[in-house]
Amino acid sequence: MKRLKVFVFLSVMLCALFSLGFAQGEEGFHFDIDQAILASIMTVGGLGVIAITQLVKNALVKLFNVVKDKVKDVLGYVSSLVVSAGATAFILLQAKKFAWLPLLGYTVYVWLESNQIFKVVKKPSVA
Predict the structure, then answer these.
(1) How far apart are CA 79 and CA 62, in angstroms?
(2) CA–CA distance from 22 to each of 18, 26, 51, 85, 125 (Å)?
(3) Residue 101: which of 40, 31, 33, 49 has the closest Cα?
(4) How far apart are CA 15 and CA 70, in angstroms?
(5) Rounded Cα distance, 84 and 44, in Å
(6) Cα distance between residue 27 and residue 101, in whole Å
(7) What are the sequence ranges of the domains in the chain?
């Protein structure tokens, strides 16, 4: 069952990325991550996306009385995605740089970063 969920998630993401690429035509799409906007998204409201996600997850666990660990994990990932999208949309609207491609790009970036799936924003090591 877990493999099916992963397969469905990856296939939906792949279809979304392909549709964005085909919609852009011959020139393709170009998207640069602005570190200032990324820092603003990660620290939205002074709390940060990780803290807001944890608050939302804990509230949903108590609200729905969830006891299984796997359900808590899925709930954490889903709430993290929703909080990441909301924080991204909020910051992009305030910066007057809202468009669908930056919303998608920053949301995925912030979601991966907040779930520590990869560590992109880090200080360089001093050698």
Answers:
(1) 14
(2) 6, 8, 37, 23, 39
(3) 31
(4) 27
(5) 10
(6) 15
(7) 1-30, 33-114
Name the CA dihedral angle for 63, 66, 71, 75, rounded to a multiple of 10 degrees: 20
Q: Are 75 and 61 in contact (CB under 8 A)?
A: yes
Q: What is the pLDDT of residue 16?
A: 65
Query: Over the stretch 67-82, which tens digit does the pLDDT of each residue have?
Result: 898 888 888 888 889 9
Check the CA dihedral 122-46-73-85 and report its sign: negative
Please give the Cα distance from 58 to 26 (Å, whole number). 46
pLDDT tens-digit readout, 19-57: 555 555 545 556 688 889 988 999 987 888 889 988 998
